[in-house]
Amino acid sequence: MLLSCSSLSVTYGRRKALNAFDLSLRKGEIRALVGPNGSGKSTALQTLAGLIKPAEGMVEIDCRPIGSMSRRQLARHLAFLPQQPSAPDEMTVEQLVRQGRFAHVGLFRNYGIEDEEAIRWALESTGLAGFDNRSLSELSGGERQRAWISAALAQEAQILLLDEPTSFLDIGYQIEILDLVYRLSREKGVTVVMSIHDLNQAMSISDHISLLERGELIFDGEPKQLADSGLIEKVFRVKGNFVQIAPNAPPHFDVELARRTALTA
Amino acid sequence: MTTTLDVRKPAPLWFLPATFLFALLSLSLALFLGVADVAPSDIIAVLTGHGSAEARSIIMEIRLPRILTGILAGVHFAVAGLLLQTITRNPLADPSIMGVSQGATLSVTIFLVFTVYIEDPGSNTLAAIPVEWLPAVGMLGGLVAGGIIYLLAFRRDLGPLRITLCGIAVGAVLHALAIGLIAGWGSARIEVLLEWLSGSLYARSWEHAVFLLPFTIAGLAVLPLIRRSLELLRFEAPVARSFGLSYRRQFSIVLLLSCGLASSAVGAVGPVVFVGLVVPHLARFLAGRHFALVLPLTVALGAIVVTLSDLVGRLAGQADEIPIGVVTAICGVPVLVAFLRKTP
């Protein structure tokens, strides 16, 4: 399943939130979107998900413009998890995950065996098999986020768009979710695009990284090339070094804390 | 929150038959109790096709049509409230709060001014009101008000709270227009309208029930078709759309249905306030996490609340009965305040 867009532009009023954004993804690829706050990562993801109509350009799945698909058709190909989604308090984990099957069952058809199996699989993949009867309000932040990811998985889409899936989670849950993303990509061939703030996590998990600054795509390439480009220090206005920790791993960005430099100076 | 829900709690499926049984019970209670004393034996005789002419007239011509009209209207208001609360994701949404009832009120008022007054300027009796048109005319006004809510919701992309506030404003304006029209109309005829305006089941005949019934049947027939979109409309628009819902289309269908149900009932019995607000909360409270039960419970509870409120109004006021709209308003306010305190 190929996801691509070319010269995508989105404007909010007079502000250009995204300008001439290009992206092309191979099947099973993991792509990280990085950039400062307000650089257009969320806008890019929402436009790719068909939730924002671009002023220019278009998004295509397998060379088919997503504008020509119905919502349900699109949802069968592509699952999108927004930042901090909210659900009715009394909803249970299982009920939430079941909504992911809407793309397949539609308004009228009953849930079949394959739907129940997909729900079961989604719950198990996110380690929520024992939680299915809990209401969402009883869950911790990490559990709730996994429930949402589970709902997106139940959609069984070949493209997964995640907007900061690891924010507000402790490091244990962060790694758990990144592991899950990695497994989905390598074992199921799911194509993943996600925005993420932790640079080192982005470097270690993704095949390609797109760096955004004020709505402009200023880098698109492999993690190692990003390390060599020197753009990170400039875009995020920090000082730091890329350090090669293990021979075959992507380099690790070691940021200098301004306070420490001030003290030693 | 310190309360923990029992994970293994079975579905309270018995609630549903119990509630419908209770609805039947309140119906018979309303049938047996009234200002005019009719012996229970006489009532049973009437129901089995016998009984005196007087008892027959009281039961078959006055009480039964009134109760049935009330039940239909109660179902309309309750379901309309549930639908509005669901799509606006606002627990305080209600057709009488969001301007839908006021739209229906205005259109019925305009209609009555033109038909009753122009056809027969001397008339001042309730009998002159063209009953058969009221649900349809009310619906027209309610749909216009619904259209305004829709435009506010999508053109300006407002959040649930601001949509509700705009609905309140729209409702206030429409209500003021209706009152102004009635005041300008003058003469003794406004008494007839004022009774209707407070939401009343007084002197509701078979005609009222019969002309409202098609709207009830049509509305309830659509409900099973929108059950899944109702589930998804509980989410924010981006989430619902990501799951594959054509959000705008489904939102419009449900809004249309809600306005149609509420405003046709306003046409028949006047704006009975707070039923649409309180009943869905009761239904959700009973259903707990079993969302599938909320809709049928809302239907049954809507019938119960209106039947019992009307009974209270009839008995408390004796000969000068209290309009049901007044009863629901008085009972509804404490419940509304309780919900407001619970809402964060």
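Chain B touches chain A at residues 1, 4-5, 7-8, 225-226, 228-229, 231-232, 234-236, 238-239, 241-247, 284, 288-289, 291 (CB under 8 Å).
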